[in-house]
Amino acid sequence: MRKLTEEEFEDICSVIELDGTTPFDVAISVYEHTVEELKKQLNDIKIYPENIKLLKEKIKKQYFYSKAQPGEMIGCIAASSIGEQNTQASLNSFHSAGIMKANLTDGISRLDELISANKKIKTPSCTFYFNNISNTELYQVKRLSNMYILYHDIMACIDKYNIHYQYKFTDYELKYLNFYKKFYKSVEITDWSVRMYFEKTKLYNINKTIEEICKIINNNFTNLHCIFYPENKLYIDIFISNNIPNPSEIMKKGYSYNIEYEEKSDKNKMKKEKEHSEMNYEDYDDIEDETHIENKDEEEENNKYEEENNKYEDLVNDDNKMYFYIKDVVIPSILVLQLSGIKEIKECYFSEDTKGKWFVQTKGSNLRELLNVDIIDYKTSISNNMNEVFSILGIEATKQFITDEFYKIINVSKRHLQMLVSAMTFYGIISPVSRYGMNQTSGILTKISFEQPFDNLVNSACLGTIDNIKGVSSSICIGKLGRFGTGMIDVIEDKTKKSDIVIEKNDINIENYIKPKPENKNIEKSKKLIVKTIKTNVVEKNNVMSSLEINKNIIKKYINNSYNENELIV
């Protein structure tokens, strides 16, 4: 036994032929892809030389057997194959919180996300490896993830904070303030200040110092002055200038911050997720409804603000406005400042692959920012959100991603899945397998046979939509033979060939075409009717009619009184 040589490869691959029924570029692409896949399968096999001829015959037989017949309903076959797996599948939603693994959506829920092409998925996540480090050491992978990937803000690292008015510094703090003014920069000591205490362990995990936190605060605010103390103290002082808005502005800003950071109910979260997931393709009515809802929400928010302002209009005055300004405006603004990591990355989970290398799965997804990190291997980084992949890597990468995700969920022929994925990405965008995706490609009769018949009919009537009736559903609606099976075959007259029979106006002799039976009493009557019909329909309209072939069987049927009147019209 031995491997195949290059000449034997070429000889076996010669059974693959170009498809002459498809465009040349498509035929070349299919041919090259088929030969490449065949070579991959033959590359690792060993065979006896005397069996090479038999192998070639088997491959040729399988190749021609795999071809679809002209007019075959491959879409229905693929749909039934995928639908069968989907129907019989169980809800495979496994919770992985107890084993420190990312709890990703799986099974029917994940299949619904892929088919619907939801922009906001339930469990967004990214998967990646680190670059230029030893991925076999778990400690190093965890350390780098905490420092550069996991999102941390000041709120995540702070232990507590206090608001002070005319704070009395200790002797040690006064000496340090004088030292700070000499060697760093002069700071205005104001009456109002905030002292923030940090946790040492959390600062160590993200590799940040107190000095770096002060620089971040000073760079983001012009009316704040931050002073850091030695590392063993783990606290900073923030001095607030006296140039602040009037009390009404404080109330407005404070109310907006409360609205932004307060926890919303589960019902509102579910409602927003549902509305956002259905915003892929909207009809005219849906856009008007959405605008109406947004305007209504703005009015409700303004009404709430007015109620709150009227309720606490006597609470904020010139005496206590600094306190409320610090409490409701300054501190919430400071707590959300980013210290390290990538936004939307809330947690990191670590898993080991078959080669013993550790990779990271995140809770939350931000692929664009993740690819900008130098220590990330961009070649192996991917998100589980197809819309994010499409916006960054394009439609071809999205097509491959959707195919891989389908393979993880259902086990069907790859040709069926490729057909579904190709239909979703054919127009260069992601088209969901729903009525929103049908709005881009299908005719009006196809739409009304699927969902919302009344709305689609009214919109099409107003816009004057034209349906070419090329689809299966639209053809069935009007009783037309669809372009599938034998219906896709057309008989075309070859006008280059002349007919053997030529009928002229004054040379119509029915005796040349009919051999009457003596026992038939209606022969003469039938002759006259046939000649009259031919004269009325053909001869009187044209002086000479060539290529007119009279069907002898029709004439015989007419004589035997078993004719069909439509068949006789020429």
Fold and architecture overview:
This protein has 570 residues and is of the alpha+beta class. It has five domains: 6-66, no CATH class; 97-137 and 345-425, no CATH class; 152-261 and 315-340, Gyrase A, domain 2 (2-Layer Sandwich); 443-488, DNA polymerase, domain 1 (Orthogonal Bundle); 503-568, no CATH class. It contains 25 helices and twelve strands. It has helices at 6-13, 24-43, 52-66, 74-88, 107-116, 138-149, 154-157, 171-183, 200-206, 210-220, 247-261, 266-277, 284-311, 321-335, 367-371, 386-393, 395-409, 414-425, 435-441, 444-448, 453-463, 472-477, 523-539, 552-559, 565-568; strands at 126-128, 152-153, 158-165, 192-198, 224-228, 235-240, 338-340, 347-352, 358-363, 382-383, 503-504, 544-545. It has a four-stranded antiparallel sheet with strand order 8-9-1-10. Strand 5 and strand 6 form a beta hairpin.
Quick recap of the structure?
About 50% of the residues lie in helices and about 10% in strands.
Set out the fold topology.
Blueprint: H1 6-13, H2 24-43, H3 52-66, H4 74-88, H5 107-116, E1 126-128, H6 138-149, E2 152-153, H7 154-157, E3 158-165, H8 171-183, E4 192-198, H9 200-206, H10 210-220, E5 224-228, E6 235-240, H11 247-261, H12 266-277, H13 284-311, H14 321-335, E7 338-340, E8 347-352, E9 358-363, H15 367-371, E10 382-383, H16 386-393, H17 395-409, H18 414-425, H19 435-441, H20 444-448, H21 453-463, H22 472-477, E11 503-504, H23 523-539, E12 544-545, H24 552-559, H25 565-568
Antiparallel strand pairs: 1-9, 1-10, 2-7, 3-4, 4-6, 5-6, 8-9, 11-12
